[in-house]
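Entry 14. Two folds queued back to back today. First construct below, sequence then structure tokens.
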Amino acid sequence: MSKNAHANRQECHHSSTQESRIFQLLPQFKDILLLIDSNGIIRYVNPDVRRLFGLQPEKLIGSNFGIPMTGDGNALIDILRQNSNMPFLGDMHVNEVRVDDDIWYLLTIENISEQRRFEDFIVREKHRLAAILQDFGDGLIIIDNNGQVELMNSMAEALTGYSLPDAQGKHVETILQIEAGQPFGTFNKFLNHLFRSEKSVDLGAEAIMNSASGETIEVQVVGSGLTDPGQQRNGASLIIRNVSTRRKLEAIMLREDKLQSIGLLASGLAHDMNNLLMGILGNLSLTQICVGDNEEALATLERAEKAVERAKQISHKLLTFSKGGAPVKETKSIVESIRESSGFALSGSASVCQFNFPHNLSLVDFDETQINQVFQNLVTNADQAMPEGGLIEVSAENVLLQTGEVPTLLPGKYVVVAVSDQGVGIPKEKLSRIFDPYFTTKDSGSGLGLAVCYSILRKHGGFLKVESQENVGTTFLCYFPASASQPKKSTSKRKPVKYGGGKILIVDDEYMVAETTRILLEKIGYNCCDVGGSQEAVEVFNEAIQIGEPFDLVILDLTLPGDIGGEEILGLLRQIDPKVKAIVSSGYSHKEVLANYEQYGFNAIAAKPYDLADISHIVYDLIRKSRSNAHSQKRFAMKVAN
């Protein structure tokens, strides 16, 4: 330590009574950092300099920094900070104090580190809250006590059509053009009630908002009062939720619930109807064999077959409502089916179709019979909407849907087919109900046509929507998922009855169906046995193997009321003979087996009602293939043995 510093300390010890009193009082003032005499000697140091600056107080006392005590003392403050390794924020001030006849200086500090950290925290939280509000799924508007807009998030901007700069300062009624329903009647009454209420206030049902873009949407508005820290009312927040999309989804779900209820009834009716038609069609085939070349009798039977075919189409319509109406799909272009079904629908009509299909239209996985039914219905409706005839435009395009773009559809590639007319249009109040079962706008309509179309599109993984304006026209849009598969080679048309030979087991709970099928097959050369249940089927099948006369083929009805079904029976038969060949036969399919029969272990399908020509080719091909494979294996085994 220097001599001057030592002398200064001695001087401090011999200070006056006034100095002593000052040194006794200084520790009580936490904001006093240093006391410096008129010679620039540090006479007192607050112990907090160790915490604030990392400096040792005992080394500062008696030091002379040689700094003139003028201005605000920033030079000394800078030296203190330069000698510190600790972050510190604060405001420092130099004040004069008279000691006896001398002027000393007090260096005081206001530590604002905590305050600054708090302010930074508030700024960060403000930005974070602003980001949260911007990403909020509903519209949010903050208004002051006069109803003027202070803040809007991006969703509120999108709903109202106003940007925040355009909306700020305007009364909220100018921004929110709302026609309120119950219980308030008007938006103004809602706001008045909101500013008087201590709780959240719901605008109520049936609130319609007209955005700046002219769009009309149904909204739900909930308001809550805002208060300042003193619990004084400081404006209000309004949350605006667009419920139009939700309403559309609810309507779709309700419609599909109705279709499901109808489907439960339709599936049972279709199953029973197909069994009856099977008996009729089978016996017509037998009769054709019996009458030989009698042309008059054959013509009569042919007319009866056509009537059965019409009944079969009605049954097929019923199946589209039921779980058994799963489409049996093929991968191919949908264009030809649209052209054929549209032409058929307009036969004898004054209307004409104009087609517009791109050459690169994606392939679609679809059931041709069902899709023909869709476009026959849509084109027929378009024709009937123009009593004097007119132009029906049918076009298609490839589209890439984004998430939420079309309700219930996943994002991805789709083919969209549009059927447009220039007819009378559909009244707005009826538009939301046209896909409901039994709802019709026609005096003589059944109300099933569009409901069937809707159901078929949904079963194809697609969607059907409508756009219409009275006295302008209507457009139906059919969405089909684009296929990722390649088209299969086309199969040949139905051939004449094929005669063959072999042993066949028929399992069907309907005696008439089982008997008719047995007689049909016996007429064309097969040895058949028919049973009505699973237990009898297993016993007969096992017995045939035991005596060395196994069945070449089994025809299994998929549904046996009160018993296990064809799929389970096939599993039991496979335990006896893993190589058993089986045909699944059904009037409807609960598990979509008819659409994917190979995945369930079957070798072929025979959808009821089938005629003799249909079943003869299926049976002949399976037995021939089975015997060919067995013969090849036998020859291979003999060759190996030799």
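Second construct, same run, same settings:
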Amino acid sequence: MSIGNSNSVVNTSSTTSTTPSTTSSTSSTSTTGSSATQVGVTAVANARTTIAGLASGIDTTSIINAMIQADEVPETQLQDESTTASTHLSDLQTFATDLLTVQADLDPLEQQSTFQQQLASSSADTTVNAVASGAAQSGNYQLNVSQLAQANQIATGGTALASATTANGAGSLQIQIGANAPTTIALPDTSLDGIAQAINAANIGATASVINDGTGYRLMLTSNNTGTDNAINEVTATDANPSTSTALSTLFSGSQTQSTPGVGVGVGTGGGMLTISAAQDAKLTMGGTESQLGTIVEQSNSVNNLIPGVDLSLYNTGPATISVANNPTGVVTAITALVTDVNSALTYFSQNGSYNASTETAGPLFADQDMQTQLDDLVTTLTGSIPGLPQTMNSLGALGITVDENTGLLDADQTTLTNAVTDDPQGVANIFTNTSTSTSNGVQFAALTGNIDTSNPFTVDVTTAATQATATGSADLNSPITITSGDNTLSLNVNGQLVTASIAAGSYTAQTLVNAMASAITQAAPAGSNPDVQMSVTSSGAIQFNTQGYGSTQALEVLSAPSVLGMTIGQTETGTDVQGTINGIAATGQGQVLTGPTGTSIAGLVLSVTAQVPENNVMVNISQGLAQQASNLLTNMTDSQTGSIGTEEAALNSQVSDLGTQITAFNANITNEQSLLQAQFTEMESIIQSANSQGSFLTQFVAGLDNSSSSSSSSSSSS
């Protein structure tokens, strides 16, 4: 569209100004034209589509808006497409979230441990409390607690002191807890408070405090742990200056002495300690009387190894019956959650993937009918039967879970479900979990993390068995072994953990030496740590150290050892990973685990190989439970890279992004076109305004000529 340009105004003004008598008028006209142009520019700046038709009288705003609206029709279509795609994407993501929730419900149902939950109860909770783990066996156990364990507690004898902060004579203390070596404690502050602080800082296995017995202050020691093995067996005061009246040993003088076996401690000269609470073990019997199984002695009131899988806490003496039974609550809750979340996914898709004939509208997921097929497959799988299991317990129908014919949703009969889990927890587990058989005890199915065909058995060949990191001495120790105090240090680096211990000097057999080294290492290890090392005697009579774990990540170095062992010092030994094939495909070995590599037909198959020697043609059969089968179907839908929903989400994201780019570009073009139209109409108004100004001048000029002519005629007539 070409209306004119600004040069027209300049050229017109130049032509008009050739008449000298019109200079003043021309100058005025130029000013007027300039003013008209400024009005138009101001109007464009203040309103995007507003141009006042001051000169033309034309409604230029309506004209421009109409032209822009016509050009915006494709953009509106793009916006509609973007909205539709965004809505589809949002609903698809919500549906995917529902399916991922179902998949999360399936995870615990793939584990045997989920179905091994046990519940322990006590007939006398105030006497014995019981908590069961998955390893507990169902049954009733009669107990009788005859004695509770308690910690040793003693106090200084003699006359109580008037102050807890007044210093006594200089000296030190030597305290022994149980069979541990005595600990000597320096006392920079010999007041009762200072002595207590020094003992507690030494961390010897007993806690010191200051008490007031009503007559004065005493130092009290309490074993940190219960039982006679943790008794305070020695408290000896050594005076720096025994002749003073405030000698340290006088704190412990008096006529009272402890007579309890394993506790009595004499200190100072003729003095002793007061027994507040003797060290005592817990004692209990099973079956009602001691004559049946004998008395069970425990150092603590927490008894965790009497009934396998049951932790007992003793509170009082007396009888109690511990009952262990299957606990259906956790399993019923897990299965019910699965049913609820499957129904939620089915309902959401039904509401958003159907066509409403009355309103003639389709849901945002209506076009995704392949997902309806996949949902049908999921329901079919969940309600199908597992081959090889008894017909009475081979499907969810045996648990009271069926499909409602009217709604298509799953329906769970809670009574039937609870009874099935209570009566046959392993049968229920077999429905959900993977089961397997193997022709070798050393090659067993461990896990299945991929969607692979398990209809045929897998053939496994173990070419190399996994080994531990092992260090073996060269000496034959079948004869008596002597360990001297100058050659008794054992130091090992086990998987980066430094373990150092001193072996008591003496004469040993090979086995008793192994026992002594193991005990020394355990005692020398930091609290809470568990040195990853084992010791044994080989068939040739040599001492052998090895890591507990298997594989190339295991490392063992003997840094020092008694020379009699014949160990190689400073050489790091490592383990080896298992190696083998599954169906002729080289598997990945790590420790004692063989895994099918990614991109192969066995990807995701995990085998546990505990065989100590190579084995060939081991046949492993795997039967997938409902949880694995359903999880595979859901992975085919939800996987972000290969799943049907994942790929569609990626396509919709790309579509929304592309539409957004097109809309942004279209908006830029519309803005540019609008600016151009505004500029063109503004220029037109300027030209018309200039022309109007010149027309006004010419009208005035002609009128002036007419007036002048009339005046001349009048003068002639008069003359």
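Quick look at the second one. Residues 171 and 240 are 5 Å apart (CA to CA). The chain is about 35% helix and 25% strand.
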